[in-house]
Design a protein that fits this description.
The protein is an all-alpha fold. The chain contains six helices and no strands. It has helices spanning 3-6, 9-17, 19-26, 33-41, 43-55, 60-89. The model has no long low-confidence stretch (mean pLDDT 80).
C-alpha cells in the first residue's frame, strides 16, 4: 500500500504538527490498549511505528523522516512541558 494512494499533504502536515488530534479524527482503525497508551504519552513515536508498519515497503524515506520527527517532536514536547513547569513554580 502506498501512502500517497491513501493520504495527501494535508494529512501529512496534520500528523506531523498535531499527531493526537489527527489520529483521533482520521484513523478509523480501532486501537488496542498499547496504541492508546502510545497515543496518550508518545504520539509522534506511535505515528512513526504505524508508518513503518504500514508503509515501509513503498515509502521508506517517508518512514525515516517520521522517525526523525518522532525523536525531535517527543523531545521538544518534553522540553516545553519542563520549561512551562519551571515558570509556574517561580
Amino acid at each position: 500500500m502506498n501512502f500517497w494512494d491513501v493520504h495527501g499533504w494535508l494529512f501529512l502536515a496534520g500528523i506531523t504538527l498535531f499527531p493526537r488530534l489527527t489520529m483521533l479524527i482520521a484513523v478509523t482503525v480501532p486501537f488496542g490498549l498499547l496504541a492508546w497508551i502510545g497515543w496518550a504519552f508518545v504520539p509522534h513515536l506511535t505515528v512513526a511505528v504505524l508508518a513503518t508498519y504500514y508503509y515501509w515497503d513503498t515509502n521508506p524515506v517517508l518512514c525515516i523522516i517520521a522517525w526523525f520527527v518522532a525523536f525531535g517532536g517527543t523531545g521538544a514536547e518534553g522540553k516545553t512541558v519542563q520549561s512551562a513547569t519551571r515558570r509556574r513554580r517561580t
